[in-house]
Each structure stands twice: as structure tokens, then as C-alpha cells.
Task: structure prediction
Amino acid sequence: MNTLQPGSSDWKNVAAQNQPDSSPALDALYQGMKDELLVPLWTQIGDLMPAHPQSKASAHLWRWKRLVELAERSGHLVPVGRGGERRAIALANPGLGGRPYATPTLWAAIQYLMPGENAPEHRHTQHAFRFVVEGEGVWTVVNGDAIRMSRGDFLPQGGWNWHAHHNAATAPMAWIDGLDIPFSYYTESQFFELGRESLSKAEMGTPAFSRSERLWAHPGLRPVSQMQDSATSPLLAYRWVDTDRALTEQLKLEAEGHAVTLSPGHAAVRYSNPTNGCDVMPTIRCEMHRLASGTTTQPRREVGSSVYQVFDGQGSVQVGKERWQVERGDMFVVPSWRTFTAGCNKDAPQLDLFRFSDTPIFEALHAHRAGNP
Ligand code: GTQ
Ligand code: FE2
Result:
């Protein structure tokens, strides 16, 4: 009899139990199955149906200094243009077989443009965003709308919109991209199309604010001409001044005795779609977290994977058994159901963490679970 109880930690080893001894008949049975391309559940169930997510992805840290150094060298050695499309270098999680996947669902890359360079126009069904940890000078042009990219800015770019990037400055610029490329790849749901070779002079302009911001970046004020909800955010830049002010006010309100933080000293905002209040994209959730000096987050685990980039400050982060000291630009992965905690060093004024995750996928499928272990 199988004596395993629900929730038993031995569940993973169930396939090894109550098995008949090896015999010529048994070997012939398994060979027969193999020949017919059949696999019995009882030899696989522990791997296929574990008691809780057992991510193949590793908790891993990439140092920003090393990413920038290799991006810079690529800038000098490898041209950007049609075909390769982007000078983007992806984080390849060591648990995912060398594929350019930060997590099973998420792509994370550093992208780099030299002064005067253009990344040509294209569109794809994969949802994307850019986040700028340092520098300025690049404009991304989404459906002909030129959007300035500066430190701390978050730029969502929903699937199937035309986009190109150009560096209008005299210095190179790096930023990070997040996309749902691995999710689209596994689910075989992706489409891609090349765009125009060059943009118009107007589209190559360098306005301080995009048309999308002039229309949408007024908190709580929706243009009445735009009442159709959209699955992706029509606001194409979320500026650092606004994010910073929102986090600063949360911590000030907390100091005044109002319960507005996640835990003491832990402020957070989620980038949201102004047409429906939901995530900026159907597959990717993006947030900025701020930890006050010397404070620590509540340990938390949840279904789905995240990638973090340290925006500012110094701190320590723990992902499962891995623990690292982190600073500006460093990027790390939190695999599904792995316990995560972050703390701001006592001698740092704050720790700001940009986070993106695949949570909206699991929420939409009613497969999301989270808890404080
Ligand atoms: O900038 O359009 O990192 O299409 C990966 C795919 C960036 C982009 C990436 C892309 C882009
Ligand atoms: Fe793209």
C-alpha cells in the first residue's frame, strides 16, 4: 500500500516505491513502451507533479559592472542594424541549459547604443519594456512617438507596436530590456515583422515628453476621447520623478503613523495601465520597491519568477539559500516558490529595487499562490 500522505516531503520519491523487481518480462514491457513512444506515469510523477514548484532555474546574480563592460566591448566590435536588430545581451540562467532565458518565462538583457547609432524599426507580439538604471541620450520611437529615456524611467511597450531606438547624444548608453520571449517561445505563439529602414525626421526628434505622456500622464485624469480599455498601457513612459515621489510619500506617511507600507520601511509601487488599473502588460508585472535604511522585507515566496535590478543603494538579498551583497545595477533572479528577502544596509540611505515578474500570467489562469513561509 502507498502510505504517502498529502503534503508529505517523501512525495517526490513516490516513483521509487512499490516497484516490482527487475525481470526479463518487466524489461520487455518497458522496451515495448519505449518502442511505441509511451512513458508510464509511475516513473515520472515526482518530477512531473511535485508537491510544489521545483524551479529548474537558479537563483543567480549578474554584476552590472561586468554587464556594462561586455556591452561596451560589443559596442566597439559588433555593428547594430537590420538582421541582428538589437545590440542586446541576454542573461542566461545557469539552470536553463544555456538558453538566453533569465527565468522560464522572462527575457532580461542589457542593450547598448553608441552615439548616433540606430536600432531599426520592427514589431513583435512579445511584450517588452525598457528600464534605465543610468545614463540618457536614447529615444525609443513607438509607433512614431519619440520617447526620451533617462535614469529611473520605465518604458512599457506592449506587443505588436512598431519600435526603433536611436542614440541622439555624444556618449554611449546602456539600459535593460525585459520581454516575455521564453514564454512566447515555449507556447509557440510569437509573430515578428520588420519595419521601415529609417524613420522620418519628425520621428527622429528629441522631445522632452512623448505624445503618450502629454495625453496620459496626468494622475487620475483620463482623456474622455480615450474610453476604450487597452490590454497594454497607452502611457509609454513612467518618469523617475513620479516614482520617487510616490515612494518618498509612502515612507513619510508611515512615519506619520499611517499604515501604507508593506512592512515597516518597505514602500512599493506597481506600474499600472491607466485604462484599467491592471498591470502595464498582460504577461509582465513591473514594480519599484524601496527599503528604508536598515530595514528588511518580510520573507516571501510565490508562484512565478522575477528578475530584479538594483536601482540605488546597497543591501543584501537572499534567494533560497543564496545570499549576496548588491549595489546599483546588479541583477538577480528569484525562481518560482523560492523564498526572497532583501535588506538595506545600515550605512545606506535606502535600497531601491526594480522588479519584473510573470505574475499576471498566473493570476489570469487562477494559478497564483503566494505566502510568507
Ligand atoms: O529593443 O526591440 O532585448 O526586440 C530583445 C528583443 C530588445 C528591442 C531585446 C527586442 C528588443
Ligand atoms: Fe523589439
